[in-house]
Specification:
- By secondary structure, the chain is of the alpha/beta class.
- The protein contains 14 helices and seven strands.
- The longest helix is centred in the middle third of the chain and has 16 residues.
- It is elongated.
Length: 296
């Protein structure tokens, strides 16, 4: 029987190989796929296994010199589409440089979240919860997993009927709606995304919930409980202490605060270049070594 490969790697411009040998760059490889210069026919996930293969692969100095010689012989087309990008994403990423001023934070949040609520509706749950779900059972739907997560957070907050809840980076208002309906609280949600604020206002209509377009640094009022889900990644390490000072200023003496975010116990590092340029400009994964001193 004739066998067929699980996948075929297609490179439409040999100049791409030259560039990758002379300047190994995961972003260059990703952009080549993004622009169609490189493609995969067949099983994409099997092809991604090449990453582990090349990480273990080792060449002798003689082989490296031969590879460099062969790469230099490859012709680079003037039309290869792999020159430095002048796209909006590229300009935004260069502009921010992780300054995390109010202006750069506003622009970065708008770049990511103000695409449109309809876009996020294509792949999120019905209420647009944009953070990890909690799958308690293997047959939980995405909607159920998000309700599980919201209830889990409310229990961590030990919400009591009549309390006032602040949601910093409230997204589309899903937690505030859930807490008001299930636990009888009132609340304030702040976001600097106008698309999120518009959706949240509609979602929480008729409930004792106020949605504001407001920077967290402007807050100066007291709450029984404070929560933040998936917003801390946009704060930046230079502002971690500022964030916790705001929480201290706004939380009642007997209050509780819950901070939910992606984190790492490894060394602080910059985001993946692809994520930085196209998805989450100006974002940063908080490291325990950065967060702990800010809390002290």
């Amino acid at each position: 029987l004739e066998s067929h490969p699980e996948y075929t790697l297609i490179i439409r411009d040999p100049g791409l190989l030259r560039r990758l040998v002379l300047r190994p760059d995961p972003l260059l490889l990703a952009e080549a796929y993004f622009r169609g210069t490189i493609d995969i026919e067949g099983d994409l996930y099997t092809a991604l296994g090449l990453k582990a293969h090349f990480e273990r692969f080792s060449l002798s100095w003689r082989d490296k010199l031969a590879l460099l010689r062969d790469a230099l012989l490859l012709r680079v087309s003037d039309q290869d589409g792999l020159k430095p990008s002048r796209s909006l994403a590229s300009r935004v990423a260069r502009r921010f440089s992780h300054r995390h001023s109010r202006q750069t934070d506003q622009a970065a949040i708008s770049f990511h979240y103000d695409v449109s609520n309809a876009f996020y509706g294509l792949w999120l749950d019905a209420e647009r919860v944009y953070s990890c779900g909690y799958f308690k059972a293997t047959d939980d739907t995405l909607d159920q997993a998000q309700r599980n997560k919201l209830e889990h957070i409310c229990r961590k907050l030990r919400l009591q009927r009549g309390e006032r809840l602040l949601d910093i980076g409230c997204g589309r208002g899903e937690l505030l709606k859930f807490a008001a309906e299930r636990h009888g609280v009132s609340g304030v949600g702040i976001t600097i995304s106008r698309e999120q604020a518009a959706f949240a206002t509609g979602l929480c209509e008729g409930l004792p919930i106020e949605i504001r377009v407001q920077d967290y640094r402007e807050l100066d009022e007291r709450f029984d409980r404070i929560v933040s889900i998936g917003m801390f990644e946009h704060v930046g390490w230079k502002n971690y202490r500022t964030y916790f000072e705001v929480c201290k200023r706004c939380l009642k003496d007997d209050g509780l605060s819950v901070l939910h975010c992606i984190g790492t116990n490894g060394e602080p590092s910059r985001p993946d270049p692809w994520i930085e340029k196209y998805i989450f400009p100006n974002s940063m994964i908080p490291a325990a070594s950065q967060v702990a001193p800010a809390l002290e």
